[in-house]
Prior knowledge:
Blueprint: H1 5-29, E1 34-45, H2 46-57, E2 62-71, E3 75-82, H3 83-94, H4 105-129, E4 134-136, E5 140-144, H5 146-153, E6 160-171, E7 174-185, H6 186-207
Antiparallel strand pairs: 1-6, 2-3, 2-4, 2-5, 3-7, 6-7
Helix pairs in contact: 1-4
Amino acid sequence: MNVTVDQLDALQELINIGVGRAASLLNEMVDSHIHLEIPFVKVLTAAQAYQELANRFHDVSLASVKLSFTGSFYGTAGLIFPTESASTLVAVLTGEEADSDDLDAVKIGTLSEIGNIVINGVMGSISNVLKQHMNYTIPVYLEDTIDNLLLLTNQNPSNSKILLAQARFAIEQLELIGDIILIFEVGTFDALIKAINKEMAILGENSN
């Protein structure tokens, strides 16, 4: 199913609503003001997503927090960003010194909670606005290269549509960039688009 400009705009708005809610929750966790924004959203095949992320991050180890979801739509959602940036972000939130080594248990726990808040914010926005029921697994923390992270997201990633949204974190003067990756099986991605079309039609009727 091809995605129109209006459908893509609707997807971006749903994600922006979700990260806005996530930012409010994160602001309650720390003294610093956290701003989250989504500069762009793309719908890609697994191969296109790999190329997009490989060009940006090259062959480096990345930090990832992911969870699976089922219900009206099913698949995997993940928050992915470079390990060094992840360590810096967690250091800001915990007040600890940034460390380029492997994140310790406290930092991994903190990062998992951040990922959980952001991902659940986005998925909650999609399910609430589109009035669709969804269930989530607990978040899982991983560190690996892009090709392995994409393979870990799905049993058959070549048959998946990937919704790739770049999320920009702004914490005071510190700016960190990560990617929110939502992965749907083809069938459920089509169901997502149909739900968006239905909601757009209702909004159009109400505006007339």
